[in-house]
Amino acid sequence: MKTGWEIKKIKDICDKASSNIAMNKITDIDGIYPVYGASGFVQNVDFFHRDTPYIGIVKDGAGVGRVNVYPAYSSLLGTLQYILPKEGNSINYVAYALKSLNLASSVTGATIPHIYFKDYGEITLPGPPLPEQERIVSELDLISGVIEKKKQQLKELDSLAQSVFYEMFGNPVENEKGWDVKKLGEVCVIERGGSPRPIS
What digits encode the pLDDT tens for the residues 76-92? Predict the structure, then answer.
């Protein structure tokens, strides 16, 4: 391990806080402060829980274990847990570190999966000094930016491929070019999948 680095438990570098906001309790409220759920922005309300940026982790249901950083003057629905890095820790470094973990491995409950801070708080993370954390965040931000650009390029290429297909063959549902229509079994050999037999 590098000089000055320490191995620390999540619970030693972060505090937790809970939300009691239920979706059905805020539908009639309007305001300027955003509320976020497991899938992202939900709506604006006239109050907020946190006045500084914070980390949120989906603690139950779909997307359990998902980690995101949220802005100041906002709140989370009760399906998420507030994670608040302690002084001397970069919020973005902690978020990246948490994202690198498989927090879903701490899931309990058969019907609705849950994760609890008392369990994943015992997981250890490398704890470099703050300047080193900030350097790591800068590098990861650059890499994340490249990844997002590549994802956008793939979306654009997919749209281009679809456009070329429609230009060449038309809409397969409307079949405006009058192509012959055949069943899949007439143009393909369909075989069942299975494990290959061992060679003797």
Answer: 999 999 999 999 999 99
Asked if pLDDT for residue 195 goes beyond 70, the answer is no
- pTM of the shown model: 0.74
SS (H, E, C) the chain: CCCCCEEEEHHHHEEEEECCCCHHHHCCCCCCEEEEECCEEEEEECCCCECCCEEEEECECCCCCCEEEECCCEEECCCEEEEEECCCCCHHHHHHHHHCCCHHHHCECCCCCECCHHHHCCCEEEECCHHHHHHHHHHHHHHHHHHHHHHHHHHHHHHHHHHHHHHHHCCCCCCCCCCCCCCHHHHCCCCCCCCCCCCC
Number of Cβ atoms within 10 Å of the Cβ of 56:
25
CA distance 81 to 68: 11
What is the distance, to the nearest Å, from the Cα of residue 189 to the centroid of all Cα atoms in its chain?
40
